[in-house]
Amino acid sequence: MKYVDEFRDPARARILVEEIHRLVARIPAARGRPLQIMEVCGGHTHTIFRYGIQQMLPEEVEYVHGPGCPVCVLPMGRVDDCVALAERPEVIFSTFGDAVRVPGSRKSLLKAKAEGADVRIVYAPLDALALARRHPDREVIFFGLGFETTMPSTAMALIQARKAGIGNFSLFCNHITIIPTIKAMLDSPDLQLDGFLGPGHVSTVIGTRPYDFIARDYRRPITVAGFEPLDVLQSTYMVLKQLADRRCEVENQYARVVRRDGNGPALAAIAEVFELREFFEWRGLGSIDQSGVRLRAAYAAYDAERKFAVANISIADPKSCQCGEVLKGIIKPHQCKVFGTACTPETPLGSLMVSSEGACAAHYSYARRTGSPTVPA
Amino acid sequence: MPLHDTHINLAHGSGGKAMRALIEELFVDTFGHVQPEDSAVLPLAALASRGDRLAFTTDSYVVDPLFFPGADIGALAVAGTVNDLAVSGACPLALSCGMVLEEGLEIDTLRRVAASMRDMADRAGVSIVTGDTKVVERGAADRLFINTAGIGVVPDGIALSAGNARPGDQVIVSGTVGDHGVAILIARNQLALEAEVASDCQPLNGLVGTMLRSCPAIRCLRDATRGGVATVLNEFAAASGAGILIRERDLPLREPVRGACEILGLDPLYLANEGKLLAVVPADAAGSLLEMMRSDPAGADAAVIGEVTREPAGMVVMKTIFGGERIVDMLTGDQLPRIC
Looking at chain A from residue 326 to 345, which residues have their Cβ under 8 Å from any Cβ of chain B? Predict the structure, then answer.
């Protein structure tokens, strides 16, 4: 497949891996403890596991799987709110696929669907709007979640709904914003990250300028990375090169789609529809100031939280669950007390076990064994 | 009484003249070999001449939509049961056909499905010998459900089992993977994707016959339907207490299927197939067997994709195109499209 195979070439990968080995030998910090590079985005976590990239790197380099899986950081109380909305008889509750299995305190959306709730998987917010047009007698709620990547398409659906005067469509808004999240990680006292792989898709929207403070104020290198395995390897090389050269800059490996100032029309659509919330609750990380968005007053009629009574009760994660420590990179997925025992993809306790982008699910599915396959001679 | 109605109504399931007309015209005439008694009666001697054990299987078909590129529910209902018999090492002989019809179903639709069943039965060399029809009220079923059961005879000396894989054995897939799964996704029209992908629905008994004649020592054989190649390989690994290592670059995959999987974030290893099998074979027989398979149109794209290993026992590992390694696990539920 043209335009994809170029980014999966094993010969180029070998060259990069060799370069990385040479580079790591030059980084003084690498002698004491492993260098920790956080990939902020769940898409990168997926690539790292799917292609087995961690094992290709020297032991001195470790990926820390960040909070960038929107499904994973959704607090249980919000899932309960989803279920309550979905269980209203007049409601068609539309959602992206991987959100349906996330456990709430009582049940997941998948279970609610089996019990009679009208839950439908859509591929885009505009599909949800089409549902509202097709079912004028029902209330169609779209479960909006994700970072700036998915915000513009949600915004478009709302702009179109308002323009067309569609009254039976609303948004349950759980969109979150990336910069305050990265800042919260950097401010966390137990964190010892050496550098970042910047989120590629988010950056197509917001550009690279908003990351300047990471290099300037926190003295950490960041490279905005694409999602193919060579992208991830090359970006890792670029972060390590900065460390070796004692530089802290915002670099852009994903220049084929990411611009310094982002995507103007997408940013305009976001600004038209959304405003910052004072704070938003994150699973495992707690409340982070100005990390979520809600609908502006002009769109109040399309806000499911205002249209229906949403309980918005915060529910503590199960005590045994260490999702927060995994999210912050303090422990690795398999070091969690319940990993692979009480918490598996079949019966997830924590949300990191649910989505295929969740660090624990990815670790469980792709990497839980040790040792290499042995074939008799 | 000839069949004049255009849609199925409750009278077609009542046991009276309307039902009789439906069964006579649509099923007995079309299928050609239905015996007009309460049971089909099969002479034992004819069976015994083909082998020493009877294989017996059943499967129900509820696919939506009923028609899709490359096949339809009728073709699927025949090929699916034929293939379950074939990969047990059996020569499929006779099928039953149970239909559950929803009130309001167009009779022309049913006619097309029945004709398609006959065509597929002829391709596979089996007869539909007995059947049953029920009609349920609108809403109690989704248009048309079909159950088929089948019997076949296992020749002497054939002993296939998922637990037979031994370290060093080679793993063969009989052709491109994921075609059926992607064809159905596209036919459901939820994706606004346009790609020319047809279901791979086909009978495999001819291919299996060729394979077993060429190599009676084949260890494991299974068709990779729901859950795809990954699920079958995991079943082999678990039942045999061995590991399986496959190589991503050797996996036969059509470009449009690969493209659809890329866009949707789906893994072709878990997509359904309706005319592909996986075989575990002794290493020394793999080369000649592969050649033999490729000479059969049903196995034209067959490939060796990996081998059985000692460790990690019970697990399937894939060497990725990129040079890394990852576990290929059983799926927890359906594959769900990712957010972004």
Answer: 345
| Claim to verify: residue A133 and residue A266 sit in the same structural domain | yes
Q: Are residues A284 and A154 in the same domain?
A: yes
The verdict on a CB contact (< 8 Å) between A150 and B339 is yes
Instruction: Indicate whether A19 and A67 sit together in one domain.
Output: yes
Give the helix/strand (H/E) hosting A239.
helix A229-244
Q: Distance (Å, rounded) from C-alpha B84 to C-alpha B78?
A: 10
Number of residues that this document lists for chain B = 340
Contact B329/A at CB under 8 A: yes
> Which of B191, B311, B336 lies closest to A371 in CB terms?
B311
Q: Report how far residue A124's alpha carbon sits from residue A131's, in angstroms, rounded to the nearest whole number.
A: 11
CA distance B198 to A129: 30
Structural domain total, chain A: 2
Q: Say if A8 is an interface residue toward chain B (CB within 8 Å).
A: yes
Beta-strand runs (E) in B164-289: 170-173, 220-223, 243-247, 277-281
Partner-chain residue, chosen from B258, B262, B320, that has the shortest CB–CB distance to A51: B320
CB-nearest to A150 from B317, B320, B340 is B340
Tokens standing for residue B45: 């001697």
Same domain, residue pair A344 and A213: no
Domain that residue A336 falls in: 323-365
Residue B242's pLDDT is 97
Instruction: Name the β-bridge partners of B101.
Output: B135, B144
Token pair 């909305």 is found at A85
Facing B325 at nearest CB: one of A8, A10, A52:
A52
Helix, coil or strand: residue B66: coil
Q: Is residue A376 part of a domain?
A: no
Look at B315 and A369 and tell me if their CB atoms are within 8 Å. yes
ipTM: 0.76
Tell me whether B7 touches chain A (CB under 8 Å): no
pLDDT value of position A345:
82
What does the alpha-carbon distance between residue A141 and residue A85 come to, in Å, rounded to a whole number? 8
Task: Decide if A375 is inside a domain.
Answer: no
Domain architecture of chain B: domains with CATH? 10-154 (3.30.1330.10), 162-327 (3.90.650.10)
Per-residue pLDDT of chain A (377 residues; tens, 9 = 90+): 666 788 888 899 999 999 999 999 888 765 578 899 999 998 898 899 888 898 889 989 999 888 877 888 888 899 999 999 999 999 999 998 878 888 888 898 999 999 999 999 998 999 999 999 999 999 999 999 999 999 999 999 999 999 999 999 999 999 999 999 899 888 888 778 899 999 999 999 999 999 999 999 999 999 999 999 999 999 999 999 999 999 999 999 999 999 999 999 999 999 999 999 999 988 878 889 999 999 999 999 999 999 998 887 888 777 888 888 887 778 888 899 999 898 988 888 877 887 766 788 878 877 775 444 444 43
User: Which residues does chain B have within 8 Å of residue A146's beta carbon, measured at their own beta carbons?
Assistant: 339-340
**What pTM was computed for the model?**
0.85
Does A370 reside within a domain?
no
Indicate whether A177 and A99 sit together in one domain: yes
